[in-house]
Protein backbone atom coordinates (compact mmCIF):
# COMPACT_ATOMS: atom_id res chain seq x y z
CA UNK A 1 0.00 0.00 0.00
CA UNK A 2 2.86 2.39 0.78
CA UNK A 3 4.22 1.96 -2.75
CA UNK A 4 0.96 2.86 -4.44
CA UNK A 5 0.45 5.87 -2.13
CA UNK A 6 3.97 7.09 -2.97
CA UNK A 7 3.30 6.83 -6.70
CA UNK A 8 0.08 8.75 -6.21
CA UNK A 9 1.89 11.45 -4.17
CA UNK A 10 4.53 11.81 -6.89
CA UNK A 11 1.87 13.31 -9.14
CA UNK A 12 1.80 16.39 -6.84
CA UNK A 13 -1.96 16.57 -6.64
CA UNK A 14 -4.31 16.71 -3.68
CA UNK A 15 -6.24 13.47 -3.51
CA UNK A 16 -8.88 11.83 -1.30
CA UNK A 17 -6.49 8.94 -0.59
CA UNK A 18 -4.54 11.21 1.76
CA UNK A 19 -7.27 11.08 4.40
CA UNK A 20 -8.11 7.38 3.96
CA UNK A 21 -6.84 4.39 5.89
CA UNK A 22 -5.59 1.39 3.93
CA UNK A 23 -8.90 -0.42 4.49
CA UNK A 24 -10.92 2.56 3.32
CA UNK A 25 -8.78 2.82 0.20
CA UNK A 26 -9.36 -0.85 -0.59
CA UNK A 27 -13.13 -0.59 0.00
CA UNK A 28 -13.61 2.53 -2.13
CA UNK A 29 -11.56 0.93 -4.91
CA UNK A 30 -13.72 -2.21 -4.95
CA UNK A 31 -10.92 -4.37 -3.59
CA UNK A 32 -12.81 -5.46 -0.45
CA UNK A 33 -16.26 -6.93 -1.10
CA UNK A 34 -19.04 -8.64 0.81
CA UNK A 35 -20.79 -11.65 -0.73
CA UNK A 36 -24.46 -12.64 -0.51
CA UNK A 37 -23.82 -14.64 2.66
CA UNK A 38 -22.36 -11.63 4.42
CA UNK A 39 -18.74 -12.75 4.24
CA UNK A 40 -16.22 -9.97 3.67
CA UNK A 41 -12.80 -10.38 2.13
CA UNK A 42 -10.23 -8.99 -0.25
CA UNK A 43 -10.46 -9.73 -3.98
CA UNK A 44 -7.91 -11.38 -6.26
CA UNK A 45 -7.29 -7.91 -7.75
CA UNK A 46 -6.23 -6.67 -4.30
CA UNK A 47 -3.82 -9.60 -3.92
CA UNK A 48 -2.32 -8.97 -7.36
CA UNK A 49 -1.90 -5.26 -6.67
CA UNK A 50 -0.68 -5.28 -3.07
CA UNK A 51 0.10 -8.87 -2.05
CA UNK A 52 3.47 -10.34 -1.23
CA UNK A 53 5.14 -12.63 -3.77
CA UNK A 54 4.26 -15.71 -1.70
CA UNK A 55 0.65 -14.63 -1.37
CA UNK A 56 0.36 -14.00 -5.13
CA UNK A 57 2.00 -17.36 -5.93
CA UNK A 58 -0.55 -19.12 -3.71
CA UNK A 59 -3.57 -17.30 -5.10
CA UNK A 60 -2.53 -17.16 -8.78
CA UNK A 61 0.45 -19.45 -9.36
CA UNK A 62 0.31 -19.17 -13.17
CA UNK A 63 0.60 -15.37 -13.11
CA UNK A 64 3.87 -14.45 -14.81
CA UNK A 65 5.14 -12.64 -17.88
CA UNK A 66 7.87 -13.70 -20.29
CA UNK A 67 9.87 -10.77 -21.68
CA UNK A 68 11.82 -11.94 -24.73
CA UNK A 69 14.25 -10.15 -27.04
CA UNK A 70 14.59 -12.15 -30.27
CA UNK A 71 16.46 -10.37 -33.06
CA UNK A 72 19.56 -12.40 -33.90
CA UNK A 73 18.96 -15.87 -32.47
CA UNK A 74 15.58 -16.52 -34.07
CA UNK A 75 15.45 -20.14 -32.92
CA UNK A 76 15.55 -19.19 -29.23
CA UNK A 77 16.20 -15.67 -27.93
CA UNK A 78 18.93 -13.10 -27.31
CA UNK A 79 17.63 -11.98 -23.92
CA UNK A 80 14.91 -13.37 -21.67
CA UNK A 81 13.46 -12.12 -18.40
CA UNK A 82 10.80 -14.17 -16.62
CA UNK A 83 8.73 -11.96 -14.34
CA UNK A 84 7.54 -14.53 -11.79
CA UNK A 85 4.48 -13.95 -9.60
CA UNK A 86 4.91 -10.51 -8.07
CA UNK A 87 2.62 -7.53 -7.59
CA UNK A 88 1.43 -5.64 -10.65
CA UNK A 89 3.38 -2.49 -9.81
CA UNK A 90 6.67 -4.38 -9.82
CA UNK A 91 5.61 -6.30 -12.94
CA UNK A 92 4.94 -3.00 -14.70
CA UNK A 93 8.36 -1.59 -13.73
CA UNK A 94 10.26 -4.70 -14.81
CA UNK A 95 8.47 -4.93 -18.17
CA UNK A 96 9.10 -1.22 -18.73
CA UNK A 97 12.80 -1.58 -17.90
CA UNK A 98 13.11 -4.51 -20.34
CA UNK A 99 11.54 -2.45 -23.13
CA UNK A 100 13.79 0.54 -22.45
CA UNK A 101 16.83 -1.74 -22.41
CA UNK A 102 16.26 -3.03 -25.94
CA UNK A 103 14.49 -0.19 -27.77
CA UNK A 104 16.12 3.02 -28.93
CA UNK A 105 14.56 6.27 -27.67
CA UNK A 106 14.26 8.04 -31.02
CA UNK A 107 14.02 11.81 -31.28
CA UNK A 108 10.32 12.49 -31.90
CA UNK A 109 8.40 15.77 -32.07
CA UNK A 110 4.73 15.99 -31.12
CA UNK A 111 3.97 19.37 -32.66
CA UNK A 112 6.89 21.47 -31.40
CA UNK A 113 7.49 19.44 -28.24
CA UNK A 114 10.03 16.64 -27.97
CA UNK A 115 8.45 13.46 -26.54
CA UNK A 116 9.56 9.93 -25.79
CA UNK A 117 7.32 7.97 -28.15
CA UNK A 118 9.05 4.77 -27.03
CA UNK A 119 8.10 5.28 -23.37
CA UNK A 120 4.56 6.33 -24.31
CA UNK A 121 4.08 3.13 -26.33
CA UNK A 122 5.52 0.96 -23.54
CA UNK A 123 3.24 2.62 -21.00
CA UNK A 124 0.12 1.85 -23.03
CA UNK A 125 0.88 -1.72 -24.05
CA UNK A 126 2.17 -2.79 -20.62
CA UNK A 127 -0.71 -1.27 -18.67
CA UNK A 128 -3.15 -2.83 -21.16
CA UNK A 129 -1.58 -6.26 -20.70
CA UNK A 130 -1.66 -6.09 -16.91
CA UNK A 131 -4.99 -4.32 -16.36
CA UNK A 132 -7.07 -6.24 -18.91
CA UNK A 133 -5.53 -9.70 -18.57
CA UNK A 134 -7.76 -12.67 -17.67
CA UNK A 135 -6.06 -13.91 -14.51
CA UNK A 136 -8.16 -17.08 -14.43
CA UNK A 137 -6.51 -18.10 -17.71
CA UNK A 138 -3.29 -20.11 -17.44
CA UNK A 139 -1.88 -18.74 -20.72
CA UNK A 140 1.60 -17.31 -20.08
CA UNK A 141 1.64 -13.63 -21.00
CA UNK A 142 4.48 -12.43 -23.23
CA UNK A 143 6.17 -9.28 -24.44
CA UNK A 144 8.38 -10.20 -27.39
CA UNK A 145 10.67 -7.67 -29.09
CA UNK A 146 11.60 -8.81 -32.60
CA UNK A 147 13.46 -7.16 -35.45
CA UNK A 148 10.35 -5.59 -36.99
CA UNK A 149 7.76 -5.54 -34.19
CA UNK A 150 6.80 -5.76 -30.53
CA UNK A 151 4.30 -8.55 -29.83
CA UNK A 152 2.31 -8.54 -26.58
CA UNK A 153 0.06 -11.50 -25.75
CA UNK A 154 -2.07 -12.33 -22.72
CA UNK A 155 -5.05 -14.47 -21.76
CA UNK A 156 -8.33 -12.70 -22.44
CA UNK A 157 -12.08 -12.79 -21.92
CA UNK A 158 -13.00 -11.98 -25.48
CA UNK A 159 -15.91 -9.68 -26.34
CA UNK A 160 -15.44 -10.23 -30.06
CA UNK A 161 -13.07 -11.81 -32.53
CA UNK A 162 -10.63 -10.18 -34.94
CA UNK A 163 -8.67 -6.97 -35.43
CA UNK A 164 -10.13 -3.98 -33.57
CA UNK A 165 -10.97 -0.88 -35.59
CA UNK A 166 -9.97 2.36 -33.88
CA UNK A 167 -13.05 4.13 -35.28
CA UNK A 168 -15.64 1.56 -34.21
CA UNK A 169 -14.30 -0.41 -31.24
CA UNK A 170 -16.10 -0.18 -27.90
CA UNK A 171 -13.80 -0.26 -24.86
CA UNK A 172 -14.67 -2.72 -22.11
CA UNK A 173 -13.13 -2.72 -18.63
CA UNK A 174 -12.18 -6.33 -17.91
CA UNK A 175 -10.68 -5.68 -14.45
CA UNK A 176 -12.24 -2.37 -13.31
CA UNK A 177 -10.55 -2.23 -9.84
CA UNK A 178 -7.08 -2.76 -11.36
CA UNK A 179 -7.81 -0.21 -14.09
CA UNK A 180 -8.92 2.30 -11.46
CA UNK A 181 -5.72 1.97 -9.44
CA UNK A 182 -3.64 2.25 -12.62
CA UNK A 183 -5.42 5.48 -13.56
CA UNK A 184 -4.90 6.96 -10.10
CA UNK A 185 -1.14 6.36 -10.12
CA UNK A 186 -0.61 7.41 -13.74
CA UNK A 187 -0.09 4.02 -15.39
CA UNK A 188 -3.14 4.58 -17.61
CA UNK A 189 -5.73 7.18 -18.56
CA UNK A 190 -9.46 6.90 -19.16
CA UNK A 191 -10.90 3.72 -20.65
CA UNK A 192 -10.21 3.45 -24.38
CA UNK A 193 -7.42 6.03 -24.44
CA UNK A 194 -4.69 3.39 -24.56
CA UNK A 195 -5.57 2.27 -28.06
CA UNK A 196 -5.78 5.85 -29.34
CA UNK A 197 -2.45 6.77 -27.73
CA UNK A 198 -0.83 3.64 -29.14
CA UNK A 199 -1.90 4.64 -32.65
CA UNK A 200 -0.66 8.19 -32.16
CA UNK A 201 2.78 7.34 -30.80
CA UNK A 202 3.40 4.33 -33.05
CA UNK A 203 2.84 6.59 -36.07
CA UNK A 204 5.39 9.01 -34.61
CA UNK A 205 7.85 6.26 -33.64
CA UNK A 206 7.80 3.99 -36.70
CA UNK A 207 5.45 5.57 -39.23
CA UNK A 208 3.09 2.60 -39.12
CA UNK A 209 -0.10 1.60 -37.29
CA UNK A 210 -0.37 -0.94 -34.47
CA UNK A 211 -2.78 -3.86 -34.46
CA UNK A 212 -5.05 -4.90 -31.59
CA UNK A 213 -6.42 -8.41 -32.09
CA UNK A 214 -9.28 -9.63 -29.89
CA UNK A 215 -9.61 -13.33 -29.12
CA UNK A 216 -9.07 -15.86 -26.35
CA UNK A 217 -5.51 -14.56 -26.51
CA UNK A 218 -5.37 -10.78 -26.86
CA UNK A 219 -2.54 -9.55 -29.10
CA UNK A 220 -0.96 -6.15 -29.63
CA UNK A 221 1.48 -5.72 -32.52
CA UNK A 222 3.64 -2.59 -32.66
CA UNK A 223 5.63 -2.31 -35.93
CA UNK A 224 9.27 -1.26 -35.57
CA UNK A 225 11.82 0.33 -37.88
CA UNK A 226 15.55 -0.23 -37.97
CA UNK A 227 16.11 2.96 -35.98
CA UNK A 228 14.11 1.59 -33.06
CA UNK A 229 16.36 -1.46 -32.87
CA UNK A 230 19.69 0.35 -33.34
CA UNK A 231 21.42 1.40 -30.15
CA UNK A 232 23.65 4.41 -30.80
CA UNK A 233 26.88 4.83 -28.89
CA UNK A 234 30.64 4.13 -28.83
CA UNK A 235 31.58 0.97 -30.68
CA UNK A 236 28.25 0.46 -32.39
CA UNK A 237 27.94 0.03 -36.11
CA UNK A 238 25.25 -1.07 -38.56
CA UNK A 239 26.84 -4.52 -38.80
CA UNK A 240 26.85 -4.86 -35.01
CA UNK A 241 23.15 -4.08 -35.06
CA UNK A 242 22.41 -6.86 -37.53
CA UNK A 243 22.52 -4.79 -40.72
CA UNK A 244 24.62 -4.80 -43.86
CA UNK A 245 26.15 -1.47 -44.94
CA UNK A 246 27.65 -1.10 -48.42
CA UNK A 247 28.54 1.44 -51.06
CA UNK A 248 26.10 1.49 -53.96
CA UNK A 249 27.99 0.30 -57.04
CA UNK A 250 25.15 1.07 -59.40
CA UNK A 251 21.40 1.47 -59.24
CA UNK A 252 18.54 -0.21 -61.05
CA UNK A 253 17.46 1.14 -64.42
CA UNK A 254 14.43 2.72 -62.74
CA UNK A 255 16.66 4.91 -60.54
CA UNK A 256 19.73 5.28 -62.76
CA UNK A 257 19.33 8.97 -63.57
CA UNK A 258 19.33 10.13 -59.95
CA UNK A 259 21.65 7.51 -58.52
CA UNK A 260 24.69 8.61 -56.56
CA UNK A 261 27.30 5.91 -56.97
CA UNK A 262 29.02 6.97 -53.73
CA UNK A 263 25.83 6.81 -51.65
CA UNK A 264 26.05 4.66 -48.51
CA UNK A 265 23.24 2.08 -48.46
CA UNK A 266 22.15 0.24 -45.33
CA UNK A 267 20.14 -2.96 -45.75
CA UNK A 268 18.38 -4.19 -42.61
CA UNK A 269 19.48 -7.83 -42.87
CA UNK A 270 22.38 -9.74 -41.38
CA UNK A 271 25.02 -11.02 -43.76
CA UNK A 272 23.85 -14.66 -43.76
CA UNK A 273 20.23 -13.76 -44.47
CA UNK A 274 21.28 -11.33 -47.22
CA UNK A 275 23.33 -14.08 -48.92
CA UNK A 276 20.41 -16.49 -48.65
CA UNK A 277 18.03 -13.93 -50.14
CA UNK A 278 20.32 -13.19 -53.09
CA UNK A 279 20.70 -16.90 -53.83
CA UNK A 280 16.93 -17.30 -53.62
CA UNK A 281 16.54 -14.50 -56.18
CA UNK A 282 18.69 -16.26 -58.76
CA UNK A 283 15.24 -16.70 -60.30
CA UNK A 284 12.77 -13.79 -60.35
CA UNK A 285 10.73 -13.58 -57.15
CA UNK A 286 7.77 -11.49 -56.00
CA UNK A 287 7.98 -9.12 -53.06
CA UNK A 288 5.75 -11.42 -50.96
CA UNK A 289 7.96 -14.46 -51.69
CA UNK A 290 11.06 -12.58 -50.61
CA UNK A 291 9.35 -11.22 -47.51
CA UNK A 292 8.22 -14.71 -46.49
CA UNK A 293 11.76 -16.05 -46.89
CA UNK A 294 13.07 -13.33 -44.55
CA UNK A 295 10.35 -14.05 -41.99
CA UNK A 296 9.24 -10.41 -41.88
CA UNK A 297 5.53 -9.80 -41.37
CA UNK A 298 5.33 -6.05 -41.95
CA UNK A 299 5.10 -5.25 -45.67
CA UNK A 300 6.02 -1.56 -45.39
CA UNK A 301 9.08 -2.33 -43.26
CA UNK A 302 10.31 -4.89 -45.80
CA UNK A 303 9.78 -2.51 -48.69
CA UNK A 304 11.52 0.50 -47.12
CA UNK A 305 14.31 -1.19 -45.20
CA UNK A 306 15.21 -4.15 -47.40
CA UNK A 307 13.71 -4.15 -50.90
CA UNK A 308 14.32 -0.51 -51.88
CA UNK A 309 17.89 -0.36 -50.43
CA UNK A 310 18.79 -3.58 -52.28
CA UNK A 311 17.52 -2.09 -55.54
CA UNK A 312 19.39 1.16 -54.89
CA UNK A 313 22.56 -0.80 -54.13
CA UNK A 314 22.22 -2.66 -57.41
CA UNK A 315 21.82 -6.04 -55.73
CA UNK A 316 18.36 -6.61 -57.19
CA UNK A 317 16.96 -5.76 -60.60
CA UNK A 318 13.35 -5.40 -61.73
CA UNK A 319 11.77 -7.62 -64.35
CA UNK A 320 9.61 -4.65 -65.44
CA UNK A 321 11.98 -1.68 -64.87
CA UNK A 322 9.81 0.88 -66.68
CA UNK A 323 6.86 0.11 -64.37
CA UNK A 324 8.28 -0.22 -60.84
CA UNK A 325 4.82 -0.45 -59.23
CA UNK A 326 3.42 -3.06 -61.60
CA UNK A 327 1.42 -5.79 -59.78
CA UNK A 328 3.31 -8.30 -61.93
CA UNK A 329 6.69 -6.98 -60.80
CA UNK A 330 9.36 -9.45 -59.78
CA UNK A 331 12.96 -9.05 -58.65
CA UNK A 332 16.10 -10.99 -59.41
CA UNK A 333 19.71 -10.99 -58.31
CA UNK A 334 22.12 -8.92 -60.38
CA UNK A 335 24.89 -11.37 -61.15
The secondary-structure class comes to alpha+beta
Estimate the global geometry from the Cα principal axes: elongated
- The helix fraction, in percent, is 25-40%
State the total count of DSSP E strands: 15
Q: Which whole number gives the mean pLDDT?
A: 84
- Estimated share of beta-strand residues: 15-25%
Q: Spell out the helices and strands N to C.
A: HHEEHHEEHEEHEEEHHEEHEEHHHEE
Q: Domains counted in the coordinates: how many? A: 2
N-to-C CA distance: 67 Å
Strand order of the largest sheet: 4-3-7-8-11-10-9
Which regions contain 5 or more consecutive residues with pLDDT less than 50? Answer: 232-242, 247-263
CATH architecture of the largest domain: 2-Layer Sandwich
List the total number of helices.
12
Q: What would a concise description of this structure say?
A:
This protein is an alpha+beta fold.
Question: Can you put this structure into words, describing what you see?
Answer:
It is elongated, with a radius of gyration of 24 Å. The chain is α+β, with helices and mostly antiparallel strands and 335 residues long. The protein has two domains: 46-229, Heat Shock Protein 90 (2-Layer Sandwich); 244-333, no CATH class. Helices cover 36% and strands 19% of the residues. It has helices spanning 2-9, 22-28, 44-50, 53-59, 88-102, 117-131, 176-185, 193-206, 226-229, 271-280, 287-294, 299-312, and strands at 32-34, 40-42, 65-70, 79-83, 108-110, 113-115, 141-146, 149-155, 162-163, 211-214, 217-223, 244-247, 264-267, 316-318, 331-333. The strands form five sheets. Strands 4-3-7-8-11-10-9 form a seven-stranded mixed β-sheet, with helices on one face. It has a two-stranded antiparallel ribbon with strand order 1-2. It has twelve helices and 15 strands. The longest helix is centred in the N-terminal third of the chain and has 15 residues, at 88-102.
Amino acid sequence: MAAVRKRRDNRNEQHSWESMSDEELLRTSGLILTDEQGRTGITLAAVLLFGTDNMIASACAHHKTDCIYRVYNLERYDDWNVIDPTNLLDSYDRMFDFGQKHLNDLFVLDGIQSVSARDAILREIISNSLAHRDYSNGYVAKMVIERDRILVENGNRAHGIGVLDLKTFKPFAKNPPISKIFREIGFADELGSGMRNSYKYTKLYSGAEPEFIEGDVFEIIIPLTTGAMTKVGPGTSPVACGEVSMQAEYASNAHAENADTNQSITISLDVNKLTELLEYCSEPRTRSEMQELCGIKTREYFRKKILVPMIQAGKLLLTIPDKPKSPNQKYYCNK
